[in-house]
Every structure is written in structure tokens, then in C-alpha cells.
Amino acid sequence: MPRIRLLARLSLFFLLCLPRLAEAQSAPPLAGDWQGSLQAGGTDIPLIVHLRAADGGYSGTLDSPKQQAYGLPIAAVIVRADSVRLRLTAPAAQFAARLSADGKQLVGAWQQGGRAAPLTLSKQAAGTVAPGPKRPQEPKAPLPYRAEDVTFSNAQAGIKLAGTLTLPAGKGPFPAVVLVTGSGPQDRDETIFGHRPFRVLADYLTRRGFVVLRYDDRGVGLSGGSQATYTMTDGVADAQAALAYLRSRPEVQRQQTGLLGHSEGAMIGLQTATQPNPPAFLISLAGPAVRGLEVMVRQNEDLARAAGLPAEQVTANRALNQQIYMTVLQTPDNQQAQTHVVGLLKQVGMNAAQAQQQAAAVTTAWYRQLLAYNPQPLLAQVKCPVLALNGSKDLQVAASVNVPAWEKGIRAGGNQDVTAQELPGLNHLFQTARTGLSDEYGQLEETFAPAALAVIGDWLARHTKK
User: Three-state SS for 440?
Assistant: First the structure.
């Protein structure tokens, strides 16, 4: 059974190449490019780590050129004397190494899931590492607006969240938008495969006269809290805190402050729109408007079909996934649910260790909440204007099912100010795509289709006129 969240991720043998800004202690000079190869099952996987000095420590990113994965943020760079640890957060993984006496090598092991593989990274001379793929939409200085690093509190959770606020030039106050990321630990830019969609989106909207707040998920980058027990309920509380902070800014029009969510972020946005102090408008990008169970079954089916699996295998996988998800929903006790799921997976040939790992993944509080998610009662409660966009090549959240569900659900509650639209040729990240598979995310130079940006910007302009 594929383990795929709403926003698909890239897997690298031991390393799962996600998140975030880094922490570090004062240490030897490590800034620069480090290169090595991980041997995995007879396959050579070249890796490049880019470290840079930041606030008395280091931040960093990881490239895996063979898998077209670039600019993947490292969660933490921790240095003690000659000991160096690079930590990732999803899942728990790290590169633990020692710096050689001459300062030219990091010798250690990549560790994840109870396994380890030797890895040596060698420092490269400046300018000798090949540049990553082109990202022509990446904002470049000088920028015609002001960017400010900010923190705000979620008093309910007792944590502080960190983000970036971009403010248009000129005299405000301005309408404003909070950006809420998709599933998994995400930084404020929603960085994936060397793309930074939220940075591109914030740049575009700020140039069009909107204040934009984007923030690191709790437990990611510079935000406090933890991802260990995170659920969408926590995401809603964080989004509410972001809205409250944005409304407190003198540069912002309080009555024209709304929320834009991508994928799971749209689910969070929908729930936020039914709570006290809702956003003034709601924008859903690739957000589900049908039950979570239905989303996941369809997602796995679409991905399998697009990957070229035979029709009979697609059908068999669908039946297995449906049985597993229903087992989880109908069995509240995790131990019992995992026992049942392991049995189902072993019947189709999965070994015991892998089956247990999959069973544990689908019985987390987050996954249970996703499967049980029912947006229909919520849609009818939304009173603010709504824009719902889905790409026709989105294999995570099918447009053909969710676009009409958004419109029907919102209108059912008497709210006629809803625009639900399928954008042709766009994938889950709103890139102009060939297949829609996550394999091509990093291969595409486009970060966010200009046509999609224009739809968002034009809709916002119409709904926030002074």
C-alpha cells in the first residue's frame, strides 16, 4: 500500500528529503559545499550538502541530483567540537559525522528507520559544484516591497511561530492573506524539490498590493512546538493565531484579511472559516471537498494508474487500500488496528517489518483524522467568499471530483459567492505538467503557473476593492 500524503513527497533510500531551516552551535568553519555518495542496494546516490553561516551557526540544504531533488532544507545543523549532525524531521533521520583534522571531510553514517549506511562528504572548492536546475520564478533582489521576519504566539498551544511578512510599497492599510502549507512538516516557503511555491506566490501577491504572511509549521524551522503529535486541529489553531497576528498589524485592513491554503492547508482553511473570527475570504488550492477516505482511495488509484500499473493490479490495490482504511476507521484501538492491517499486508506478500511500519503510519492521530475528515457539513457553514482551484493533472486531489463538490457544498448553505475552477494541465503544485506524477516536480523549471497566479490575483482584487 503506497504511503502517500496529500502533497506527495520524494523518498531517497535512507533520506526523506524534507524540511527546514537549521539550528547550530558555534563551531569550526563548515560553510561551503560538501559532496559524497550513499550506497543503497547496489545503487550509487550522489548527495550534495550546502552549508551557510546563519545567526552564529549554520543552515543548510541538500541536493540529490540523480533524483532531480534540489534545495531540500535540512532541519538542523548541530555542531559540537568536531562532531556534526545534520537532522531531518520527516521521518526522523540524520547524518552523524566527525570533521577530519584537516577540515576537508565529514566522515560518518546516514541513519534512518533503525538502519545506517556509511557516508563521507568531502568539501568542494568554491565554484566547482554544478548549479541546480533553473528556477526562473524565484524572486530576486532588489524587491519592490518590504520583507520582515516575524514571530507570533499561539497562546492556546503555548508556542511561538515564525514566518515572513511581505508588505507592499506605498501607504496602507492593505488587504492581507495568510498562506497555510500542505501536509507534512513544511517550511514557510513550502519548499519541495528545489521549488519554493509559497515564496513565489507571496512575491506575486505582494506586488499586486497584498500583505502576505507565510510561516514555518510548528516544530519546523524557527517555529516552536512539535510535529510528533500534530493533527489538523493543531493546524487550525496555528492558522487562527496567524490571522489574529496579521489583523493586529497597522499596515493591514482587518476586515479584508483572508486565508489561502494548499492541499491539507485548504482543509485547515475550511475548518478555520467555520470557527469564530473567520477569514474574510477563503482560497483553496488543491483542497479536498469530499471525505478523506475517498480522497486517499482515489489518490492511490490515480497514482498507480499514472505510473503504468496493470489495470488488474490497480483494482486489487484499490480494494486493499479501502479495506485497510475501513479497518482503521472501525477499530479505535491502535494495537488492534495495527494487528489487522499487518495481517492484510502480509497476505499480499509484504514482510512483517514493512507491514508493521505501514500499519503504524496509518494509525497515527493525524492519519486517523484525515481518513475521518468529512467536509460536507463544514462547506455549508462557510459565509465568506470562496475560490477553489484544482489542476486537471493533480493526482493527489482529483479535480473532477473535488471542484464540483466545493461549489455544491458552499452553495448548499446559501453562500452564492463561490468560484470553483479546474485549471487545465496543472499538477498538485500548480505547475504546467506532463504526467502529474511527483517524479517530474523537480524536473520542471516552472514553480507556479503564471495563469494560476493571475486567477488568484484577479479574484482577490475583485473581492478586496476599497
Answer: helix
| Strand boundaries in 169-321, DSSP class E | 174-180, 211-215, 252-262, 282-285
Q: Which of 93, 287, 289, 278 is nearest to 183 (CA)?
A: 287
Architecture of domain 145-290+375-463: 3-Layer(aba) Sandwich (3.40)
* Residue whose grid cell is 476507521: 329
* C-alpha pair distances (Å), 118 with each of 15, 40, 90, 103, 384: 13, 10, 20, 19, 54
**Would you list the domain boundaries of the chain?**
11-124, 145-290+375-463, 293-371
The third-level CATH classification (topology) of the domain covering 11-124 is: Lipocalin (2.40.128)
Q: How many CB atoms lie within 10 A of CB 68?
A: 18
Residue 96 CA: distances (Å) to CA of 14, 50, 93 = 13, 16, 10
Distance CA 386, CA 398 (A): 19
Contact predicate 164/147, CB 8 Å: yes
In terms of phi and psi (left: phi > 0; alpha: psi -120 to 50; beta: otherwise), the region of 266 is alpha
Q: What is the pTM of this model?
A: 0.82
Helices 352-361/334-347 angle, 10° precision: 130
Q: How far apart are CA 299 and CA 437, in angstroms?
A: 11
Q: Contact at 8 Å (CB) between 299 and 317?
A: no
Say what the pLDDT of residue 87 is: 81
Q: For residue range 96-153, what is the model confidence (pLDDT) as tens digits? A: 999 999 999 999 998 876 778 899 999 998 888 877 778 999 999 999 999 999 999 9
Q: How far apart are the first and last CA of the chain?
A: 51
Q: Which of 122, 97, 124, 95 is nearest to 27 (CA)?
A: 97
Instruction: Classify 39 as helix, strand or coil.
Output: strand
Pick out the chain residues at pLDDT < 50.
1-27, 91
pLDDT score at 184 = 87
